Amino acid sequence: MLTPAQWLLGSLAALLIGFSKTGLPSAGILAVPLMALVFQGRVAVGTTVLLLIVADLFAVGWYRRYTRWDKLWQLMPWVMLGMLAGVITLLMVGEDARGRDQLNTWIGGLVLAMLGIYLVRFRLRAQMRLASLPGLIATGSAAGFATAVSNAAGPIMSIYMTSLGLPKYELMGTTAWYFLLFNLTKLPLYLLVTALAPQRPLFTADGLLFDLIALPAVLAGVWLGRWALPRLPQRLFDALVLGLSAVAALVLILG
After folding, report:
1. pLDDT digits 0-9 by tens, 41-51
2. What is the number of structural domains in the chain?
3. What is the mean pLDDT of residues 106-116?
4. pTM of the entire predicted model
5. Region class of 67: left (phi > 0), else alpha (psi between -120 and 50), else beta
């Protein structure tokens, strides 16, 4: 049974998940540590992915016409490679003595590294591009790995899309399809991991019940995000996306 405090934290996480899909992409990563406080270890990963898919469906429905499929197809092979590495890692790596997923520090470090690359490029007007082949491989692999092990690819994708200079609606439409496709792909992979390691399940009855009860909070976040997006100036939108990415990375590292 969840305590009232856990229900409050879980509802806030669900609200942020909905808001991130239609308003500010990087806000959703803050749901990762919140869900970890509600459900220990990898149960939080399985519980969260179902809420993400619900919110993804709304985001695709509203922003699909802005999707830049060329940018999406370029990343897909490398994302799949990263997801494969993430699934293998889920089978091999557990929690530390505090029950905290050891991978969070790695993911936070990846996010900060990508943010550093983006800022250096912007500051120096350098020619290095995240859309180059090395950049595509690094971004796709890191995003695939992060999404597989802890649903934490949001900041990586946000930094990558921002670096391409996409207008906010194209960024939202492209990331909406990205996350819907790969969150759906994760479901059979998570079921396989649970079957191979039943003593460390990703899905539980308590988690599924929470998802059902938390749906209204997700829907509220979805509508709040849709209301907020057209009211955010492009420069403020970019600054908030990058700033929240940095905050989220520090939460993952220090949490």
Report:
1. 678 888 999 99
2. 1
3. 67
4. 0.82
5. beta
